[in-house]
Amino acid sequence: MCKHILNAQVSIRAPCCKQWYDCAECHAEAQDHRLAKTVEMVFACKKCKKAFRKNMAEYDESDEYCPHCDNHYVIDAKTPQAVIGVEGEDARVDARLIKDERIKENPSRSIFARDTTDRIG
């Protein structure tokens, strides 16, 4: 699973070390050498798990699909974005998630305040 591209559809075989990676950044993290450039690339579809070759010098729009299962693997990459937020609705609309420390709690509203001796054997 690639941590750089969240929706990677294919794995790429690096021509320099003959190992499979989801992206060039994964290769850079795992290896101490640069990724070699080549005209013919080897891909492995993540949907059907079959490998295929593409000549990048003669690449056209029909080459954006896996030849085995027609999976569209050339799509815009989704990269992880750091987001800080609060789960839940807007506090001005629904304030049930916010506890007000100024208000004393009613001890009779606790689940431990109930008399359940008649239910215990």
Automatic annotation (TrEMBL):
Any single Gene Ontology cellular-component annotation: mitochondrial intermembrane space
All copies of domain CHY-type, residue ranges: 1-71
Organism, scientific name: Piloderma croceum (strain F 1598)
Protein name per Swiss-Prot or TrEMBL: CHY-type domain-containing protein
GO-annotated biological processes: protein import into mitochondrial intermembrane space
UniProt keyword annotations, A-Z: Metal-binding, Zinc, Zinc-finger
PROSITE patterns assigned to the protein according to its UniProt record, in alphabetical order: ZF_CHY (PS51266)
Molecular function per GO: zinc ion binding
Pfam families on file: zf-CHY
Domain of life: Eukaryota
